[in-house]
Specification:
Blueprint lengths: L7 H7 L7 E2 L3 E6 L5 E9 L3 E7 L9 E7 L11 E13 L5 E8 L6 H15 L7
Antiparallel strand pairs: 1-3, 2-3, 2-5, 3-4, 4-7, 5-6, 6-7
Length: about 140
């Protein structure tokens, strides 16, 4: 006797992108390419095709707005120039998050010009997830 579970609803709810996403925790600077306004944010989730960012709830950016994201990848440097990865894309969504006082801004990344170091970062986070050191709903 075999038991089968239909989990397509759960997978769609947790993973809306074509690329597999996983949780990550990096500080970033989000720059609106139209207004040149920069805000601090944190990565909520990450994949090879996009990034989910947590921002203060008063921050809202229109869908389709071109943005730049600077990801600070070396958290251990003290009093030295920070190491970061720059990627560009556009806002795919801006919604309320489950965290009080925060919005989630979904960024669809441009493939052209995306550095290999970004894909390496995503791969490392996916390995952490696979090995149980990272979690996503």
């Amino acid at each position: 006797r075999s038991i089968f579970y239909d989990c397509s609803y759960i997978l769609n709810a947790a993973n809306r992108r074509k690329a597999f996403r996983t949780r990550a925790t990096y500080d970033v600077v989000l720059t609106n390419k139209l207004s040149h306004v920069a805000v601090d944010a944190s990565i909520y989730d990450i994949s090879t095709s996009g990034i989910g960012l947590l921002v203060d709830e008063q921050i809202s950016i229109e869908q389709g707005t071109p943005v730049g994201v600077g990801i600070y990848v070396d958290k251990n440097l003290k009093n030295t120039k920070p190491v970061y990865i720059r990627v560009i894309g556009e806002v795919a969504r801006c919604t309320l998050s489950e965290y009080t006082g925060k919005n989630i801004i979904g960024i669809k990344l441009e493939e052209k010009g995306k550095p290999a170091s970004y894909d390496k970062l995503v791969f490392e986070e996916q390995l952490r997830y696979r090995n149980g050191r990272n979690s996503i709903k």
